[in-house]
Amino acid sequence: MNSRNKLSALLALGLIGGALGLQPVHAADAAKVRSGAQRAMAATGFTLGKAGPLIVAFEDPNCSFCDHLTQEAAPLIAAGKLRMRIVPVAFLKPDSEARAAAILQSPDPAAAWEQNMRGFDHRKEEGAYPGTQPSFTSDRGLRANLALLQDLGNVATPTLLVCEKGASQPALMQGVPKGRLATLVSGAGSVTPSGDCRP
Description:
Blueprint: H1 3-13, H2 27-42, E1 46-48, E2 54-59, H3 64-78, E3 83-88, H4 96-105, H5 109-118, H6 136-151, E4 159-162, E5 171-174, H7 181-185, E6 190-191, E7 197-198
Helix pairs in contact: 2-6, 4-5
């Protein structure tokens, strides 16, 4: 079972925890999540949106679940109710790295990401942005991003770091149940460069 199918099965069984899919963070894991959030905020990536709480999303440009998340986030981002820091990873398909690299190397990675998702082909499970040969910098960044995702515990996309309302530290999520993103970010805090949450 690949990561995406495993994630779907876990979501269907309710094993990812909570009505919104939040994984419980045990005390032993809290330091790992905080460190992961710090690293994610400094990682190769870009931010969609200018206002609202900031969440972090690890996404592959060929991930259909990531496309659903991007589409659900778009009206919240446009309304200034959400910012989403995208930390691109590349592992789902052979051309994921070339597509992610092209997005990172574009003059406006956020616009390139949105173009990739707007034209997403769900039948083929691939994004729309044309790939390119990764530069040394984008290749190194994508490899570091994937290593960070592995360190957080499971290579699946989208994986998110989210500050629940009133929380002092981000929670780790894998996927958001359809139609629940607005509820999740309503009153949520922002992930900070220090790996904490702020209102």
